[in-house]
Write a structure and sequence with these properties.
This protein is of the alpha+beta class. It has a single domain, classed as 3-Layer(aba) Sandwich (Glutaredoxin). The radius of gyration is 11 Å and the shape is globular.
Length: about 80
């Protein structure tokens, strides 16, 4: 199974959509709330060079925003 981290904020609609997608498909992930965790926020900026959320990291691949088709492709769905 892939190692998945979703960098989110509590008020982000697309973050909620991404989390719903993973829950609906019984896919485990780790959530990092970048509004409350400065270390995870710095990690996200280092990975992407920007502050937009969600950022979905699937193993070594990164998807900025919730691009369901790209996520499915990376997960082999």
């Amino acid at each position: 199974m892939a190692n998945i981290t979703i960098y989110t904020t509590p008020t982000c609609h697309y973050c909620h959509a991404a989390k719903e997608f993973f829950a609906d498909n019984n896919i485990e992930y780790t959530e990092a709330d970048v509004s409350a965790d400065p270390e995870k926020r710095a990690e996200m900026v280092e990975i992407t060079g920007q502050m937009g959320v969600p950022v979905i990291r699937i193993d070594d691949d990164v998807v900025v925003g919730f691009d369901e088709s790209k996520v499915k492709e990376l997960l082999g769905m």
